[in-house]
């Protein structure tokens, strides 16, 4: 059965490596000799491939100006390859670490948060959970456009160290308490992760709770400790972060309401 999203490998050319990550190597490429694309070449054995292929079909139907477009997949041969929009600025976390001047531009950082929030509001509206929202999973395009990538992929990873909240690669520092305690993912657990992403941006890409081990973080968060206000972070923005880190998921704001708040804030910070 031929999926509408199957891309024939003969229509792709593979160029230089852009980076590598959890699932394999990412290369710059061209589609039909014209369109720049990013080619994520999946390491064999890292993904539950059949389910992933089904899900890819769903993911190609998602469209938002702040979501990385998934153009299609190569599954007729191994390794599986995911063809997405090319984002010339690369990973947001690295970008923010390299561009220190951004720390004196809270208006720009706020706009970045607003863009990510827009994509998340869209996912929330169609009941889709990201599960691994963090600055490392966002990409930078032209004119400081920020796009969210890798939505839903984490569900198909076969590595227990990554998928189990007890695993060494599980992103504990971005995880809401109910995710750690009962593996309860929701848009509200995405909201918690979004607050940590905001903190990453306003600290210039610091690692959250750097001095603490994963176990210590879980304990401290449960006791009510929270990440501190980054130096150049406006108080109104920090108070939003604190709202995203409410112990009770239902008390956290929705992405929809955060989006409205950002809109109001952007006028006052400028
Ligand atoms: P993984 O999800 O396997 O951990 P990533 O998606 O983080 O891998 O990709 C690894 C690196 O490749 C990123 O840090 C980034 O620098 C680069 N990269 C990934 N996707 C793109 C893209 N669409 N455009 C440009 N660079 C990309």
From TrEMBL:
Domain Protein kinase: 12-262
Binding positions (ATP): 40
Family named by the database record: Belongs to the protein kinase superfamily. Tyr protein kinase family.
The protein's name: Tyrosine-protein kinase
Gene (name only): Btk
């Amino acid at each position: 059965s031929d999926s509408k999203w199957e891309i024939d490998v003969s229509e792709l050319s593979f160029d230089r490596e852009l980076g590598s990550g959890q699932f394999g190597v990412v290369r710059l490429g061209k589609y039909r000799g014209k369109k720049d694309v990013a080619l994520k070449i999946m390491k064999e054995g890292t993904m539950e491939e059949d389910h992933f292929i089904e899900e890819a079909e769903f993911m190609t139907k998602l469209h938002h100006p702040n979501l990385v477009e998934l153009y299609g997949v190569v599954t007729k041969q191994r390794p599986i390859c995911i063809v997405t929009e090319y984002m010339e600025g690369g990973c947001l976390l690295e970008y923010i670490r390299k561009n220190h001047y951004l720390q004196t531009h809270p208006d720009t950082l706020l706009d970045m948060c607003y863009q990510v929030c827009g994509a998340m509001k869209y996912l929330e509206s169609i009941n889709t959970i990201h599960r691994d929202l963090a600055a490392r999973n966002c990409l930078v395009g032209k004119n400081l456009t920020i796009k969210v990538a890798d939505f839903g992929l984490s569900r198909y990873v076969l590595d227990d160290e990554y998928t189990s909240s007890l695993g060494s690669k599980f992103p504990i520092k971005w995880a809401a308490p109910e995710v750690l305690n009962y593996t309860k993912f929701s848009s509200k657990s995405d909201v918690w992760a979004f607050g940590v992403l905001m903190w990453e941006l306003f600290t210039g890409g610091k690692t959250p709770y750097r001095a603490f081990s994963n176990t210590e973080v879980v304990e401290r968060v449960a006791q009510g400790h929270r990440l501190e206000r980054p130096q150049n972070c406006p108080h109104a923005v920090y108070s939003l972060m604190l709202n995203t880190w409410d112990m009770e998921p239902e008390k956290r704001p929705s992405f929809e309401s955060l989006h409205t708040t950002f809109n109001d804030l952007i006028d006052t910070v400028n």
